[in-house]
Amino acid sequence: MKILGIETSCDETAIAIIEAKSSRIEVLSNAISSQVKLHAKFGGVVPNLAAREHAKNIGHVFKTALADAETDIDGIGLISVTRGPGLAPALLTGLTFARTLAWKYDKPIVGVNHLDGHIHSNWLMPIGVKTQNSKLKIQNFGDKIFPALNLIVSGGHTELVLMQDHGKYKIIGETLDDAVGEAFDKVARLLGLGYPGGPQIARLAEQFALNNAGSIRINADTIIKFPRPMIKSKDFNFSYSGLKTSVLYKVRELKENKTKLTDSVVNEICYEFQKAAIEVLVQKTLKAAAQFKTKAVLLSGGVSANKYLREELSKNCAKAGIRYFQPAMEYTGDNATMIACAGYFRYAQIPTTSRNKFSWKSIKMDANLSLS
Ligand code: KG4
Ligand code: ZN
To answer: For the Gcp-like domain, which residue ranges apply (predicted)?
Structure first.
């Protein structure tokens, strides 16, 4: 069965086609039109501007996704669309497009949670890759990975989510203020590094590690120190707003002492900030995995592109004897393959006799949709 995924919750207009086979899921196309450059000059995403761009680009992205997959709309068995959480005007554009397709071509349609999508980025094999890499893929649906623990880290979310099965989630911890990706973006902005900040900070942190330890795998010493917020708290919640403020105060203090923010000082700030942010994520994830006796840890969300996070989580899960999975790099950011995949699992769980509820009439947007 071929599934068409549609994602417009933020600043990427994305449409993809995947094919669910008996034992694996194949990505046939993954079309994305990014608005990052447009929003960069505002330092963040402007919702109405995002919606206007989605409306402008979605037809073209749809055509590209079909052409790349060498199929047409008749070959599609299911439409899966993000219905929340996200920016309301942006979500509505994708939802309206998806509902219109479902109505016009009489296709079943399913509305999915954007975070359910991120979780399912772990089930996707990159186009053209045939070999099995245990860290990258849970291709075999029979895999005994449940209960699994998901660490979802993006620009809008930082969540630890227990997964008993596809669609069966329980949030056990989340950020009390800023999301971790948001903290990367805000710190980058105050250092004048541009938007989105995550990749910039990661690059400069790596530079510092290479210059001072010779490798990003070895810890480098820093004079600048930042706190590890809530690392010792008994719950599984996070807080990133204080860490961002610590960076702000450090930058002010350096300026007041007439210390120039040279490249090496900025690199050191990025390194120590990234280390502080990620240490908390890794420690809390491992603690939760032990407490809930989960069989696997799954990383996802835009921040899962961070190499240091991938390495630290992988290393610590191996030490604890827990299976660890991470999405292929091309599926870490917002895309529609993951939405198609989450939709497929929801559809597959429903008995054939009840599938009439997958109608265009029943799909509703919810900008604050929660996983559990
Ligand atoms: O999942 P995503 O593409 O969009 C949301 O749903 O929010 O996540 C975007 C976030 C941004 O905050 C961006 O700075 C962050 O992911 N990000 C990174 C890296 N690449 C993207 N953060 C840290 N290190 C990275 N390499
Ligand atoms: Zn996302």
So the answer is: 26-340
The reply to whether CATH 3.30.420.40 applies to domain 146-326 is: yes
Q: In terms of Cα–Cα distance, which of 259, 190, 199, 175 is closest to 224? A: 259
pTM over 0.70: yes
CA distances to 47, 157, 179, 180, 259 from 175, rounded to whole Å, are: 23, 7, 6, 8, 33
pLDDT over 90 at 45, yes or no: no
Architecture of the domain whose range is 2-124+331-362: 2-Layer Sandwich (3.30)
- Ligand 2 centroid, distance to 148 Cα (angstroms): 20
* Per-residue pLDDT reduced to its tens digit, 112-127: 999 999 999 999 877 7
For the chain, residues classed under CATH 3.30.420.40 are 2-124+331-362, 146-326
Cβ–ligand 1 distance for 44 under 6 Å, the answer no
- Judge whether residue 44 has pLDDT over 90: no
For the Cβ of 86 lying below 6 angstroms from any atom of ligand 1, the answer is no
Residue 334 Cβ < 6 Å to ligand 1: yes
Residues with CB under 5 A from ligand 2 (ion): 154, 334
Cβ pair 114, 335 in contact under 8 A = no
Lowest mean pLDDT among 312-326, 330-344, 351-365: 351-365
Using the mean position of ligand 1's atoms as its centre, give its distance from the Cα of residue 300 in Å. Answer: 10
Among candidate residues 5, 171, 179, 9, the one with its CA nearest the CA of residue 76: 5
User: Ligand 1 centroid vs 303 CA: distance in angstroms?
Assistant: 4
